[in-house]
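Sample entry (160 residues):
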Amino acid sequence: MSYTDKLETQAEVTEGDFTYRLVTEKAEYSENEPIKIYAELEYTGDKGEIEIFHAASPFSFPMVETTRNYEIEYAMDMPLLSKTLVKGEPLRGEYVGSGGYSSEDQNEYQDFMKQIMNKEFPAGHYVVNGIADFDIRVSEGTESKEKYQLEAQVGFSVIN
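Predicted structure, serialized as tokens:
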């Protein structure tokens, strides 16, 4: 799919016993309006609950601003944490900001990223390449793990 295609504000992907949802609450935001994006991970398997292992969060929200073709990275601490998912009760994570730049980047890119990092999205079209990244233990008492990386895309525009 090309970035110019109209993206939905909600996407859902199922892999194995897990369903991942990515949502932006609106297709269009005005400049300086808070951007509301969240992800959910739901366990749908046979057990009552399952333990997952992940970095600071199982969710990440990297983006591309397609008008300028700027990538907005989503950095995260990488501890190994675990969380128990109860069947039918989605785990939710909200977008809390992202972005970064170096002194070698062009000034206009730095200015753009400073706004993003301040949660002030400039006018443009944004594609969120959401990811749920986690492992599960294959069987109790073993170190053997099965890796999951579920990906979905949603899009929104910011207008002035």
